[in-house]
Amino acid sequence: MSKRHPVIAVTGSSGAGTSTTGQIFSRLFASEDISAAMVSGDSFHRYTREQMARLAAKGQFGERNHFALAANHIDRLEALLYDYSHTGNGRYRHYVHDEDRELIAAGFKPGTFTPWQSLPADTDLLFYEGLHGGVVSENYNIAQYVDLLIGVVPIVNLEWIQKIHRDTNTRGYSPDAVVKTIINRMDDYVHDIVPQFSHTHINFQRIPLVDTSNPFIARDVPTEDESMVVIHFREATDVDFARLLQLIPHSRLSRHDTLVIPGTKMPLAMDLIVRPMVQRLMAGKAFA
Predict the structure, then answer these.
(1) Among 22, 16, 53, which Cα is nearest to 189's?
(2) Domain of residue 53, CATH code
(3) Of the residues 2, 193, 216, 238, which has the maximum number of CB atoms within 10 A of its CB?
(4) Which of 193, 23, 42 has its CA nearest to residue 130?
(5) Helix H or strand E encompassing 279
(6) The domain containing residue 165 runs over which residues?
(7) 203: which strand partners?
């Protein structure tokens, strides 16, 4: 790796856990004294929350839903990654979430966007977290600009449980409304989200060890200690499995390119796996 302006992306669907992974990376960047331009995939949605609601009321669903490429400014996302990889700059914006107190205090309404603006100057790398960091389609190739692409992919029943729990408990949606959203997104999940995980360098897939056969009646989300995490590497020859097996308690190999760990050890495993890769990216900047 020897690129002057590296790009790291974490991709996964809504409720999969990409935000938690982003927090792990933020701590890693801080400990390595890395200045990262942090970009959220929500920023590239085409419609505000109210626009999506109005379209849905008419049965149009805003190019179907946010999973669909057509419901997002994928062209702007590709332009950002192209520009950053070549110049260290690019254009982005923020999507205002209900919990974004600073943006709300500045006068922005939840469910809307801030104006497009330039990334902060002189950052060490760009970090993207969202739905479409690994898109390769007839019209777009986002993955080609990403130096380290990570997929966060719980098995689908667990993903649905996490989404239902989050949207009903923290966003105020009814269970029926969340299930309807899941159903409406299914075609786009299959065609626009799932194929990205064939382009990732590493996939982290959490698997519950409790019964999730009917995710629509689950009362709580399986905890980390009720789960295992399957970690698949695209290039197994670059991985020091002996070191990982020694440092991660109760880990094992299920295949030559696949590590299985207890769910509670995912932050440790991600740090052990990703930190050396980030360090190599940073070292490569000096020779770019």
Answers:
(1) 16
(2) 3.40.50.300
(3) 193
(4) 42
(5) helix 266-285
(6) 7-285
(7) 151, 232
